[in-house]
What does this fold into?
Amino acid sequence: MPDPELHRAGFAELDARTFHDLARLRVDVFVVEQECPYPELDGRDVEAGTRHLWLAQDGAPVAYLRILAEPDGVARIGRVVVAPTARSAGYAGRLMTAALGEIGDRRCVLDAQSHLVEFYTRHGFTVSGPAYVEDGIPHTPMHRPILETAFPIEG
It folds into this structure.
């Protein structure tokens, strides 16, 4: 089976079927599988600065994440999800690499489900605050520090 194809789009570039399939993947995992009734469609998908990234196999999404543009210029990665049948194939890592490439050197934050802190640490994130429970699931705030290049002063 060929590798899934990477897609990137703003909301205005998504056709109705694609958005439906992306939303269904998110609902199937976050609401149904994780038994977490919450407003999955939060209005942020349609914001001008939001970017949707997903991997599709035979036209169907198998992994997804979104990048939100916060008012202070920070990029926020969220809704990182992999279909149950596609887990352990490295798809979340592939999406994270693509997302970080798109974000570049901007400050970046996310709220990790706590059991995934190690995964995000491998992508350059560090814990930035105490763990908390949201919708019955432990989460940990994380950020990716901006790497500053230090040049020695010659004199």
In short: The longest helix spans residues 16-33. The longest strand covers residues 60-69. The chain has one domain: 5-144. The two ends are 60 Å apart (CA to CA).
